[in-house]
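Subject: for your reference before the review

Hello V.,

The reviewers asked for a structural picture of the protein, and I figured it would be easier to keep everything in one thread rather than splitting it across files. Below is the amino acid sequence we used in the manuscript, unchanged from the supplementary table.
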Amino acid sequence: MEFWGEYGADKVIPLINYAISSRSVHNPIGFVNWAVQSNCTASTFKTSKGRKELIPLWLQKQKEEESSYPVLNPEEIEKHDIDLEEERRKLEEELKIYKK
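And here is what came back from the structure prediction:
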């Protein structure tokens, strides 16, 4: 407790509360010791739930298109008589759009 006193109650108490309430901290005292020595605060460890990353529109479009592609194994390719060279050419043309 004397060691923690050097860092101030406003920093240590939120760390103690976080360590006690967190399911991932199995040794709250060790965690608080490590956190104050590493100059961490309780807000360092809190994450916001429901956070959404910004994804570029071109990537969203690509993901939507990819999800609609049929997944074929080699036997199905022969069965459907898909021209792999033609497919490669189409994909290369599509890729040119995104290359700079």
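For the response letter, the relevant points are probably these. The two ends are 59 Å apart (CA to CA). The CA atoms of residues 46 and 64 lie 32 Å apart.

Happy to draft the paragraph if you're swamped.

O.
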